[in-house]
Amino acid sequence: xxxxxxxxxxxxxxxxxxxxxxxxxxxxxxxxxxxxxxxxxxxxxxxxxxxxxxxxxxxxxxxxxxxxxxxxxxxxxxxxxxxxxxxxxxxxxxxxxxxxxxxxxxxxxxxxxxxxxxxxxxxxxxxxxxxxxxxxxxxxxxxxxxxxxxxxxxxxxxxxxxxxxxxxxxxxxxxxxxxxxxxxxxxxxxxxxxxxxxxxxxxxxxxxxxxxxxxxxxxxxxxxxxxxxxxxxxxxxxxxxxxxxxxxxxxxxxxxxxxxxxxxxxxxxxxxxxxxxxxxxxxxxxxxxxxxxxxxxxxxxxxxxxxxxxxxxxxxxxxxxxxxxxxxxxxxxxxxxxxxxxxxxxxxxxxxxxxxxxxxxxxxxxxxxxxxxxxxxxxxxxxxxxxxxxxxxxxxxxxxxxxxxxxxxxxxxxxxxxxxxxxxxxxxxxxxxxxxxxxxxxxxxxxxxxxxxxxxxxxxxxxxxxxxxxxxxxxx
Length: 476
Ligand code: ADP
Ligand code: MG
Hints:
This protein is α/β, with parallel strands linked by helices. 46% of the residues lie in helices and 14% in strands. The protein has helices at 2-5, 14-22, 38-46, 59-71, 85-96, 113-122, 138-142, 149-155, 170-179, 206-220, 232-244, 258-270, 303-310, 330-340, 345-357, 359-365, 367-373, 383-393, 414-418, 422-441, 447-454, 467-475, and strands at 27-30, 52-55, 76-79, 102-105, 126-129, 161-165, 186-189, 197-203, 224-228, 250-252, 275-278, 291-296, 320-326, 397-399, 406-408. The chain starts with a helix and ends with a helix. Magnesium ion is lined by residues 37-38, 130, 285.
């Protein structure tokens, strides 16, 4: 660690976890964003004893992390759809020849036969699952592929595994270990308290008022500011208004092309006064230490996602703020969002039948055809995508060669459909939304303390920085 990373001391539970790992154990580490979770797999790769495979949920994140590891002198690379086919082939050959110690991929990679063969033959010495909460934040982050990690681990002959996340309630911690099929795993949890973060909620009525609030907050925060909104159309509306006031924010979302994404990411990382509007997936795991404020245009779906997102501010330990712009109408929209993320058995079955009965149309038009037939155009309605992923996971569909389409394999059975547990999941997600709502509405208790309690901690003092603490101070 000294020689390679110029670091002299461990932070938090890094050393404890490394000792578990040296003892051959698998398990979970929960450590705040920016705490230093990556060091664990980086050190493992630096030992040069074999391939360390890191599963990451997002492409932007992988590129960043593999670049960083290379700067540290590690033989690292990543495989994803943004690099050319040739380049991918080359990298995969390098993996096969044993020239790579640290490889970043998304779980989707495991759908590819060639990759599966190479990786299986190389037998990773460590499997690291980054942002492991995506396993159970299924409906929110929309990473259905994370539900396959147990299978993937088994396919790799159960290598030693370390799961990493910044946010997991005690219940989610258990779920992660269970889903990864890790028995007798360790579970090390660092306090999530962030002494540099001041959390604030501003009640707003309508988008115009929110935009005015963003302008005001931008002028109060001249450093790097990240604004989150879940709809691309909202981001554009906000950007247009801000443009009229002479502010020129960057916009980042999942529908941008790979090249644009890379460029924006680089600009954002490099600029100390970056002003970025983005969908919440942006920033997951990105290492920009000097973000001074994170502004939310809408109520997030759960305290987990909120804290994960707001936690991207102030990683350098310098004062930073979170500002949640909350409109009481937000909750209704978010409730619809939850509904759309969770198709019921009837819906999934009709997606299958459409594919089985119309193979040609599906091959040509892919998911667009299905959306059209099922008659909905709402961009936030993900039921078709969710259904496709489920059907594929059950073995009812296989992806067609051209990537767009799907081919029917077999009818989903009643056992398949019973796994959906739609009602139960809706209940869980609605409960989380209500906890989030309750957190936003309640103004007489320290905001940080309430988040800590949500994650199973019993803090001894208020933060003294949030809006609730500030108004307490004023009134006393
Ligand atoms: P995260 O837990 O969010 O994944 P990272 O692993 O990206 O955090 O680490 C954030 C920063 O902390 C990096 O710049 C890393 O070099 C630094 N860091 C990690 N461990 C230590 C340590 N023991 N001492 C000092 N800096 C560290
Ligand atoms: Mg990380």
